[in-house]
């Protein structure tokens, strides 16, 4: 079986000599187990052990007496590399703490699918002892590595040049092979980046795989793990969020529509966030008078799963939700490809709006998603009020630079992100 290299693998390699436990969090089916086994495979000359903690017998061995467990499997004179899959199943991080403290020659790599469980039950025991990473479904760059490897280098160079513009004001490279890359981007926005979906050979097979991922999520995580009894209401809740993707989320409106309490709606949203299905974006609030307060926008971490929830896999060019799909794509890329940047959106009480405002240190860069390339008054209002050095407008196929006041505005194809 061919293993496709993930960007996170390089980061983990850089930290290979550190003692801390490496914990990789992310949604089911995103490739965490594959990544773990790939790391183990590359250590073929070292002493390793892999445990799937979804299996009760394996789990008990570690829970009952972690010290005896290590004593049994370690070898004299050899460092043990322990790989633990789905660590939220052990219920407590105490056994990991014991291993870390009592056996300094053991190195632990672990994965988990529930952010809430890992944070509350695992990490609370591992303060100063763990490094936490997140692995989502394939980014667009990783997707190209599978779907069109010959175009991945081109994408990487254009993407890097955009990052350099955002960070330092450097020139952005001109696009090339644009129709091909744009066509692949449209496919990516419809079917997303789950590994098994990318490997599927036909669009109908991709639909089948996505629907199976959705059903497994509802069945395994929601019904059994979170013990949601009314799965029908939960599915309706997810569906309403899917229709509201890239928009302000109103739990009071959703709870009223579904006939559930506001508290239940909050619970459902928390589950979706902590299982990496959706993410929320807060608003930028510097002016307490004109800017909206306590508002959040909802985005899906994989648009393929979102489209499965809606049962809509129509081609991009024939869809009425092209704008939300494009905006969601940029959000997801900013989350995974621009580490270290804080991200919010901007909107005033007069409904002037900018899709994303990213900031790092003293730098603030507005990012607007306009497929046609026509910017509106909200964008101009932000430039006038905040006077950033640089700004970006993500379009479908336009490329160029324009000065608006003192701001250098770069128009780029959306796939540059």
Overview of this protein structure:
The chain is α/β, with parallel strands linked by helices. It has 2 domains: 7-134, P-loop containing nucleotide triphosphate hydrolases (Rossmann fold); 140-416, no CATH class. It is 46% helix and 19% strand. The chain is built from 17 helices and 13 strands. The strands form 3 sheets. Strands 8-9-10-11-13-12 form a 6-stranded mixed β-sheet, with helices on both faces. A hairpin with a 2-residue loop joins strand 12 (400-404) and strand 13. Helix 11 (203-225) crosses helix 15 (303-310), helix 12 packs across helix 15 and helix 13 crosses helix 14. 38% of the residues are buried. The mean pLDDT is 92.
Short description:
The protein is of the alpha/beta class. It has helices at residues 7-14, 32-41, 56-64, 66-73, 94-102, 115-122, 140-147, 149-168, 178-191, 195-199, 203-225, 231-243, 251-258, 262-274, 303-310, 322-337, 377-386; strands at 21-25, 47-52, 80-85, 106-112, 130-134, 278-282, 296-300, 342-347, 353-360, 363-369, 390-395, 400-404, 407-413. The two termini are 30 Å apart.
Attribute tags:
single chain, 417 residues, alpha/beta, Rossmann fold, 6-stranded mixed β-sheet, 5-stranded parallel β-sheet, 17 helices, 19% strand
Question: Uncertain spans, ≥5 residues at pLDDT below 50?
Answer: none
- From the alpha carbons, calculate the radius of gyration and give it in angstroms: 23 Å
Oligomeric form: single chain
Helix content: 40-55%
In DSSP terms (H or I, runs of 4 or more residues), the helix count works out at 17
Mean pLDDT: 92
Instruction: Please report which band the strand proportion falls in: under 5%, 5-15%, 15-25%, 25-35%, 35-45% or over 45%.
Output: 15-25%
Biggest β-sheet description = 6 strands, mixed
- E-strand count: 13
């Amino acid at each position: 079986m061919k293993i496709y290299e993930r960007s996170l693998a390089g980061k983990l390699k850089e930290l290979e000599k550190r003692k801390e436990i490496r914990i990789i969090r992310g949604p089911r089916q995103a490739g965490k187990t594959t990544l773990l086994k790939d790391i183990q495979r590359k250590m073929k000359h070292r002493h390793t052990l892999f445990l799937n903690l979804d299996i009760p017998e394996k789990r008990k061995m570690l829970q009952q007496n972690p010290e005896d467990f290590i004593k049994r499997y370690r070898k004299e004179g050899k460092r043990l590399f322990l790989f633990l899959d789905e660590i939220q199943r052990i219920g407590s991080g105490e056994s990991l703490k014991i291993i870390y403290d009592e056996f300094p020659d053991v190195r632990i790599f672990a994965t988990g699918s529930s952010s809430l469980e890992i944070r509350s039950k695992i990490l609370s025991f591992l303060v100063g002892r763990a490094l936490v990473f997140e692995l989502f479904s394939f980014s667009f760059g990783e997707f190209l590595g599978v779907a069109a490897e010959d175009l991945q280098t081109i994408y990487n160079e254009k993407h890097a040049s955009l990052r350099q513009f955002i960070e330092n004001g450097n020139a952005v490279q001109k696009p090339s092979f644009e129709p091909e890359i744009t066509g692949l981007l449209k496919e990516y926005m419809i079917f997303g980046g789950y590994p098994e979906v990318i490997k599927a050979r036909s669009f109908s097979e991709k639909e089948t795989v996505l629907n199976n991922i959705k059903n497994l999520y509802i069945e395994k995580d929601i019904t059994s793990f979170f013990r949601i009894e009314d799965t029908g209401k939960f599915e309706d809740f997810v569906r309403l969020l899917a229709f509201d993707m890239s928009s302000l989320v109103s739990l009071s409106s959703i709870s009223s529509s579904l006939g559930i309490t506001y508290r239940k709606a909050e619970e459902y949203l928390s589950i979706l966030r902590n299982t990496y299905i959706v993410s929320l974006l807060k608003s930028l609030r510097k002016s307490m008078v004109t800017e909206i307060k306590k508002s959040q926008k909802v985005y899906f971490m994989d648009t393929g799963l979102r489209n499965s929830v809606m049962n809509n896999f129509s081609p991009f060019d024939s869809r009425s939700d092209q704008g939300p799909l494009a905006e969601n794509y940029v959000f997801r890329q900013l989350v995974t490809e621009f580490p270290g940047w804080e991200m919010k959106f901007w909107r005033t009480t007069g409904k002037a709006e900018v899709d994303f405002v990213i900031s790092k240190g003293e730098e603030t860069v507005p990012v607007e998603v306009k497929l046609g390339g026509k910017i509106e008054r909200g964008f101009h209002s932000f430039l006038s009020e905040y006077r950033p050095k640089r700004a970006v407008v993500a379009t479908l196929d336009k490329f160029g630079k324009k000065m608006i006041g003192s701001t250098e505005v770069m128009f780029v194809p959306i796939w540059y992100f």
